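Practice set, problem 2.
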Amino acid sequence: MSDAPNRPRVLAIAEAANPEWVSVPLVGWSLAHALREVADLHLVTHIRNREAILRAGYAEGRDVTFIDSEALDRPVWRLSQALRMGGGKGWTVVTALKSLSYPYFEHLVWRRFGPAIRAGDYDIVHRITPLTPTAPSRIAAKCHAAGVPFVLGPLNGGVPWPPGYGAERRREREWLSYLRGAYKLSRGRGATARAAAAILAGSHHTAGELPPEAAGKVFHLPENAIDPARFNQVAAQSPEGPLRGAFVGRLVPYKGPDMLIEAALPLLQAGRLTLDIVGEGPLAEPLREAIRAGGAEGAVTLHGNVDHGRVQDILAGAHLLTFPSVREFGGGVVLEAMALGVVPLIVDYAGPGELVGPETGLKIPVAPRPELVAAFRAALERLAEDRGALPALASNARAEVARHFTWAAKAHKVAAVYDWARDPGAERPDLSRI
């Protein structure tokens, strides 16, 4: 194992890696940083992350190298913002255009590190971000030719919109998502999978979409995890007072905050439920109007955006994470809630559906909007009447996260993949048992 004296020398490529941001950059940073406990790791990332990473204590040159690809990235970013027309929507456009500019970043990485890779200075090259499977890697084949195992992932994304959500899809301006499958025609997709020694798939959906060349190399490893130092409180799960729910996320159509208010309104009006909603987005004002119109102002608190470090303070006051997202790739907030002993009430689809089991949370079958709202309301009504099952679910959820979903636990799973990639004749590791 990689915690033995023979620690692998790893070049970790994470174009997005930032300890002060959220979403993909935080995943890239957190995994790379955790891997330093099991490997001698040098991080390669974008110049935009420089100040935050230096503030985190890394030494430039020794621990991290910054790549300046802004000559192409800056105009591509501006174009993507223009095409998505603001409002926190149209993320498929951003991903697609980023996939066009990313090869230049890898070109600069290889120019800087190619000689060292060829010389055998690294035992593993691991591309952590981008997470999207639509961005092939030209470095993969070059590493393969140099005899250095290339590990890719965790990859995630591309979950189809469920039936019955065409209106939400249009409100999100996800017109490019109709064409997303075109990336499968790229020759680079198969070439990357063929050259990779191992591929980490963040979801079973993504694993099922990988090309045939990936057969035998894929390991299921959800990309999200939690930092116990950031999420160290324990929700009280008090039997007193009204049921308390919390929603954390961007206020956009696919995450369903408007569906949550619609489902919860009778309970909010009756004083049997309170909600804390954390986040901002284009649905913020419509939510305020719906809450006012329903006479539920006293039962709902709209916190807006809060510092990531304060999220646990709000979540830990809830019984439930009330999260009716219908197209969530990863579901990091679900793990954060579980770590605090806040029971997730989620839609059984995509990322959250894979993270939550019958012993750790409550799942509503995915359905068109009217049926989903009705099912969410029925679940809330049952829990408002009897929340006796919640303490056991909360305890199980905390144990599940502690065992499998801390960054340290994830690093040990990745270390097992590194060992296997360096010796493919060895027994394939079962990550669920590590």
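Problem 2, part (b): a different protein.
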Amino acid sequence: MMHPDKLLSMTTLPLHLAELMGKPVNDIDTPALVIDLDAMKRNIGRLAEFAKKHNIRWRPHAKMHKSAALARMQIKAGAVGVCVQKTAEAEAMVAGAVYNVYISNQVIAPAKLARVAALTQRVAAHGGQIAIAVDSLEGVSRLAQAMTEARTSPREDSGAAPAATVIDVFVEIDVGQGRCGVTPGPAAVTLALEIRKHPALRFAGLQAYHGGAQHVRSALDRQAAIAQVVAAVRRTRQLIAEQGMTVGLVTGAGTGTFALETASGVYGELQAGSFLFMDRDYAANERDSAQPVFEHALFVKSQVMSVCASHAVVDAGHKSHAIDSGLPAVHGLALDYANGGDEHGILRGAVLPELGEAVWLIPGHCDPTVNLHDFMVGVRGGLQHGTVEQIIRVDARGALS
């Protein structure tokens, strides 16, 4: 019997995808989002090996791949769970039997917080844990209220009283991103002390992620940016410790900098996610020699639909790939990709591909590219001569709430 992660129920798959199993790569219709399963497996192995060598936890971001099947694959390889950014993403992961989920973002709306509390109850039955970030006293208060209400309300599925579950809460500090998070230092201490007042909340540590540093091209400049981050984290952790509280965990880091956070000795958990697929933007960074080498594993398969003397046109426009971090690169060919609009991409170069030829594109940014697709096609044996082994549902596509 085929493992459920290998193939979704035939009734849930479009016919053209269900018929692909075991077929050669050439049979994949275009445009399609394709995973090189061999490259992805090597990427997972390299991060798992790095984490084990340095005795650090890794909790990859599932907001990148949005797939419970891929989350379970990473957990099997040693990840402690996954991060997400949205309540709906957490729900999609839990529905797919991923029971250790950290919402590394602010959730303020009471209706969403009620959903978070319900998830906490649900995963507790599986020995799992939900965690969340906060950056305001109001956020702490609203979270505590939602958790308290969930503790006192009968379970809808059985009418029984719910267990007295506790949610892990991380205080987010702004370490340079200029987005969410309180200023490092006393403001974070205030939040940690407030969390301690609520029986349904457990102060779990600090969320300290500098997203902007991930895409700084120079390795030396990234090093300088993370040095400032580490100094802010150390100072905040010390101030909290002076109040008699233990900062259980500092979590953060991304694909561009995680070796630096690891080397600091301050971080206990890495949130790198894009390493799994390695998009064009991340590959443009000057490599830090302390980090493993990751391969491109996510591609948009396209086909040449028109050719003239000056250019060729493929059938993958920006409805097929995100362009917020720039246009895709063309894999294996000396061609430049130019924006042709929603449905078209323009290729230019000294030698143009022929009409009907397959062209593989490396997306500029993997996260929003994945969110444009319902399914990803997993190929084993390479992009030229491989076969389709797995159809992977994008479970959290459009999970924005």
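Answer key, part (b): The radius of gyration is 22 Å. Confidence is low (pLDDT under 50) at residues 7-11.
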